[in-house]
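Try this one yourself first.
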């Protein structure tokens, strides 16, 4: 489960899509950029390969809820 999910726009103009995101997963901090097409560009460490698809799905759901609602 993702905890302490935060996001903020990458650009001062809020109309331009792209967000900096950060969250904890399994007690480890992860940072990424969420692109306008839904791609996630990991900054630094990324979740283990066996968890990455489920983490990305959770991130997409959170972004849909918070940004695209």
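Now uncover the answer:
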């Amino acid at each position: 489960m993702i905890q302490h999910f935060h996001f903020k726009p990458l650009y001062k103009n809020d109309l331009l899509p792209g967000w900096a995101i950060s969250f904890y997963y399994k007690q480890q901090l992860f940072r990424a950029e969420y692109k306008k097409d839904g791609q996630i560009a990991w900054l630094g460490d990324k979740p283990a390969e066996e968890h990455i698809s489920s983490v990305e799905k959770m991130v997409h759901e959170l972004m849909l809820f918070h940004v695209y609602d």
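Discussion: The chain has a mean pLDDT of 91. The first helix runs from residue 49 to 66.
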